[in-house]
Structures are given as C-alpha cells and as structure tokens.
Amino acid sequence: MVPKQGVTCAMKAIFLMTAAAFALASCGPTVPESGVGFEDYQTYAQRQQAAEQAGAAPLPGIRPGQTVVQAPVSDIASNTPESTAAVRAAAANSGITPIEASPGNTAPQVVTNAAGISNENSFEAVSAERDIGADAQLIAQNRAQYQLITPTDLPPRPSGSGPNVVEYALRTTNPVGSPLYDRRGRDDGNRISAACGAYTSSDQAQAAFLAAGGPQKDRKGLDPDGDGFACAWDPAPFRAARGG
C-alpha cells in the first residue's frame, strides 16, 4: 500500500508541471489577427501602404477611395434560372422567344370548332342548333320537292340518219353463223377481208351493210355466210341489254 505522504508529493509535482506549462504558453508571442473586420481601418490602411512601398503584394480588401461598382439589376435578373432557360429555348426555337408562364399573360383562346369542320356527330351541338320538330319540317319539304322520273321510250330517229343497228339486232333472233340467205359463189375470203377492212368497226360495217340493201342483196359482199350480219358483227350484246 502506497503511503499517504507519497501520494501527496506526486499530486504536488503534477500541479507544478501543469502550472509551468501554462506559464510558458502565456509567455509566447501572440499572433495578431489582421485584416478588415479584426482591426480599425486606419491601422489596416497604414499596413497596406507600407506593404505597397516595400513591393509586397497588396493585402486583400478595398483600397481607400476605391468605388464599389454595383452590378446592374438587369444583369442580375438575367442570371436567374428562368431567364437562362428562356434564352436557351429561344436559341433552339429559331430565335423566337417563348412565352413566359407569368400570371399576367392572357390565357390562350380555346378553339371549339374550326371553320369547315362539321359537328354533326356531336349530339349536344346538333340539339342546340335544331330540334325534332325542325327536322320533321325539313323532311316534309324534301318530300314535297321529290320527283319520280319514269323511263320512257326513245324518241324516233330523224329521217336520213341511216339504219339503226340496235333496232335490227332486236328485230332478229337467229344467232351468228346461222345462214338465212343464199350466198353460193361468194366464198372468196380475200375479197371479203378487203371489203371489211374499209371500216373501223363491225358496227360501221353492219350499218353500211343495211344501208346498201341489207342481207337480201349484200351488194358489197360483207355477209359471206348469209346470217344477215356483216363482218362478224354480233347482235348478242344488244339482245342481252334488253333482257332477251
């Protein structure tokens, strides 16, 4: 067990060592706090002037007599995020400045029905324009103006217009190639081909055939088989149109 006297001596030694350390610290030079805000302005100006005369770098701060220039309010406002976004949008929009979302801006007008677009499919729009009674009146007016045109017979052909091949087709009943007239001795194919080649169509050949006396005479030699039809003219389409 440590004697009480020894403990007391040790505590005294520790106390003395601590006091000596504080004394040494208080004896050391203090680092002055310099600069604007830590000393009066006159002392700071003297130190600044002495540093300039000695060729040293000037101390930070504002020189005496120096005027502080305040940035324009427009420049400050132009650096806001909204202004920067507007400038970027204008650069990407062919130079057109976009409309800013300001409460003072007039709200855009909503177009409910552009010109030329029908709103007949909208029940509300149609109901607002007319009612069932107006529709019934309109239907009655249309019925009063309705006219039923019935087909009539064709007017007679004027005299001197030539034979009618359609009338001849409907008057006859024999098919193509069925001989009705005697054509013996008229089977010269070269002569028949030359005669039919003078017409641009079989209808013209048939009309000329009828104008020259028809199948009874066949003066131009256009009906070698005697069926009454010149140059392979076929009456079937005209008969089919009549329904027979």
UniProtKB/TrEMBL annotation:
Q: Does the keyword Signal apply?
A: yes
UniProt KW keywords: Signal
| Signal peptide feature range | 1-25
Q: What is this protein called?
A: Excalibur calcium-binding domain-containing protein
